[in-house]
Amino acid sequence: MDISDAQKARLHIFELVVYWEGAANSSLLVKHFGLSRQQASQDIKRYTALMPGNLNYCNSRKCHQPSSNFKPLFVTGEAEQYLAWLSQPLPLQTLPIHSLSLPSRGLEPALMRAIAQAIRHNQRLEVDYVSLTNPNRRGRVIAPHSLVQTGLRWHLRAWCEHKEQFRDFVLSRFRGDATLSGPATHSAGQDTAWNTEVELIFEPDLRLTLDKRSVIEHDYQMHNGQLRIKTRACLVQYLLQEMRVNTKVLDAVPEAQQIILVNLNDIKQWLF
User: Fold this and answer.
1) What is residue 224's DSSP assignment?
2) DSSP state, 61?
């Protein structure tokens, strides 16, 4: 393929967004890579030359969309690739790195596109969902407003019309097709747990020796023996899980958990 590494990186991002969100234009490349409008347009022309028939241009939306015969050239088709890009807006590495190979969670591109459109355009979404408490597919009408990465999983924060509250939906548990169904009646501004900021305060386990506590304090860059982390109230439980801090049972071996939460009463109402 007669194409530079720099242009390949740009076309990779362009194709990634087209594939998963269902639309992209030169503004994406301008904002993401700091290109001129002319250079961004040239990149897209280069892509269409490499993959003729992959894109359709929508005049009303002024964007390129994937055709029914779309075949990815640069992307793998795995949702994790797109979601990883969302969590790292500029994933251009300058040093060699290696990451753990974690299990992939399935998500259909068409479903991701519908979710992205619902978020961008503040729309209701009709979709089937399963859970461990209700493994049978059940139709839900939701109004999504944000994607959240919680370690191994991605969640969708959305208003649920069935439960009449804002809830977290695991992306890999959506099933079938999703349909946009008009303007959402609830938005992120009405999500109290999303808009409430709380602070979690951690300290080394007091059962550790002073020398071991000093090691932990340095590991976590603690100040005055404490680590303070601010987060959204609805994400408190996930943060504790990622920090491997159990607020219900204290591990018998202090070296196992290493740190403890010291302001449990302040955040208890946000746990589930």
Assistant:
1) T
2) T
Collapse the DSSP code of 54 into the 3-class scheme (helix H, G, I; strand E, B; otherwise coil) and give the result: coil
Whole-structure pTM value: 0.81
**Strand 55-58, strand 63-66: pairing:** antiparallel
Rg (CA), the chain: 22
Location of structure tokens 């302001």: 263
Cα pseudo-dihedral 200, 196, 194, 245, rounded to 10: 10
Residue 93, pLDDT above cutoff 50: no
Specify the amino acid at residue 105: R
**Is the predicted pLDDT of residue 228 greater than 50, yes or no?**
yes
Residue 227: count of CB within 10 angstroms of its CB: 19
Say how far apart CA 17 and CA 20 lie, in whole Å: 5
Helices (H), the chain: 5-21, 26-33, 37-50, 79-87, 109-120, 192-195, 210-219, 236-243, 254-257, 264-267
Sheet hosting strand 227-232, strand order edge to edge: 227-232, 197-204, 259-261
The tokens for 143 are 């109004």
Q: Is 48 exposed, middle or buried (0-12, 13-18, 19+ CB in 10 A)?
A: middle
